[in-house]
Design the sequence.
């Protein structure tokens, strides 16, 4: 075990969702990178898309910081490993600063003395846990001096959360901005940015997030350059860097990465239809002894040669369902391989691809269920445990993950118990060679799951 120290870092937070966190964070990352700084991005919460925008902005994919998925004990080492060679770490928050979840891991050794008013999974909890200063984004739409009361309330809510800077977004005119600034003069918080209404180019959106980068990387890369050029002058990068350098130098214990020797080959689906994969999961599988070979279910006619295991993550297969159904050769091979016992882990979009059909589009048919798209969102953390041993876990072993889907499966399956904020439900498909459900799993602190799956594939 070694010991390291967290370096300059800052959290970009908002008073609520939709105030411009991703826009401002992406612009800051791009601008700092453009200045020649080594920037390490990170994202609070279980997000697949925002970290890929971070990567377009500064060349490094944002790491996941999530106390439910990882546990509080893993946050310090995870943040250190992501930022140890960086000049500055920029962490994008989730939802509003003090918005969190009712779900709790109940880890026995995670007493960090966190203010109990800071909800589990919130950006505020992350700020307290890592002692990272916060820059708070305030949306000035349809308000002015009242923003001072909002800023003061957020600043005084907990002594463990230090709001060191403010960004005023969407102000309408010079006099409007002056009203806001005048009302805030009594606050001991510096305004580090002010962005006029209309300065930000429109970001395309799908569901609750952004369009995945993989669907149109060049257009999005150019959009980020435009974003940097249009609002970069409205943000004081020197002040943001100064705030980051003021962060307390927290010391953390960590383990050095070890070299691995592949013992088996696992095929991992990716491409436009399957872009929701945590890089940490790939790293965990490699560490457990897997040689990872990627394939695209939209375009590849066969599974990679030597495939001994299969992992299909999430994404938007419903958007590409017709094209997926046309890849008959791959679908038939995958069906036969899975029927013959190929160890297979499929989550959310992966479950959809392995189903019999998504709406009217024929899929692989290896999982006996039909998928129907709905307008109802199933969203939130979950603790899951299978009712019997399977290729991913042992019976009753707890898995930490989350759900995000607009579809439903019929039948739902009856092999996995899910504990969510809404109670307990039983669904999903788990056998000695299959684990298929709507659960997105993060292996960042669940290395034993990777080891179990790789052993099944060996």
Sequence:
């Amino acid at each position: 075990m070694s010991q390291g120290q967290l370096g300059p870092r800052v959290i970009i937070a908002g008073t609520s969702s939709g105030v411009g966190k991703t826009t401002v964070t992406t612009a800051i990352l791009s601008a700092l990178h453009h200045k020649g700084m080594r920037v390490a991005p990170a994202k609070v919460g279980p997000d697949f898309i925002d970290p890929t925008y971070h990567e377009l902005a500064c060349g490094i994919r944002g790491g996941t910081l999530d106390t439910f998925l990882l546990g509080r004990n893993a946050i310090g080492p995870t943040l250190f490993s992501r930022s140890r060679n960086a000049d500055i770490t920029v962490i994008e928050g989730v939802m509003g600063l003090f918005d969190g979840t009712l779900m709790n891991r109940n880890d026995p050794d995670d007493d960090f003395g966190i203010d109990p008013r800071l909800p589990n999974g919130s950006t505020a909890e992350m700020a307290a846990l890592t002692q990272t200063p916060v820059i708070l984004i305030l949306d000035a739409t349809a308000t002015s001096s009242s923003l001072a009361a909002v800023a003061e309330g957020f600043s005084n809510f907990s002594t463990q959360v230090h709001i060191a800077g403010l960004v005023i977004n969407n102000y309408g005119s010079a006099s409007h901005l002056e009203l806001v600034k005048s009302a805030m003069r009594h606050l001991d918080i510096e305004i580090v940015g002010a962005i006029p209404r209309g300065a930000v180019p429109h970001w395309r959106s799908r569901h609750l997030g952004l369009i995945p980068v993989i669907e149109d990387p060049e257009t999005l890369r150019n959009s980020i350059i435009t974003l940097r050029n249009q609002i970069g002058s409205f943000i004081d990068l020197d002040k943001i860097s100064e705030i980051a350098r003021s962060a307390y130098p927290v010391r953390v214990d960590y383990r050095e990465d070890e070299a691995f020797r592949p013992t088996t080959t696992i095929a991992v689906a990716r491409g436009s239809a399957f872009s929701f994969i945590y890089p940490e999961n790939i790293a965990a599988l490699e560490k457990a002894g897997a040689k990872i070979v990627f394939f695209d279910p939209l375009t590849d006619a066969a599974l990679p040669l030597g495939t001994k295991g299969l992992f299909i993550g999430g994404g938007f297969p419903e958007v590409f369902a017709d094209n997926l159904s046309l890849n008959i050769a791959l679908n038939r091979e995958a069906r036969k391989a899975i029927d013959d016992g190929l160890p297979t882990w499929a989550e959310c979009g992966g479950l959809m691809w392995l189903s019999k059909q998504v709406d009217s589009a024929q899929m692989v048919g290896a999982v006996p269920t039909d998928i129907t798209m709905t307008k109802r969102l199933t969203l939130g953390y979950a603790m899951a445990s299978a009712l019997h041993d399977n290729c991913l876990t042992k019976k009753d072993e707890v898995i930490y993950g989350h759900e995000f889907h607009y579809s439903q499966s019929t039948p739902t399956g009856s092999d996995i118990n899910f504990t969510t904020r809404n109670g307990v439900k039983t669904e999903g498909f788990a056998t000695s060679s299959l684990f298929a459900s709507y659960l997105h799993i993060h292996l960042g602190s669940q290395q034993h799951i990777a080891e179990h799956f790789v052993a099944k594939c060996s």
Summary: The mean pLDDT is 94. The chain is about 30% helix and 30% strand. The first strand starts at residue 2 and ends at 5.
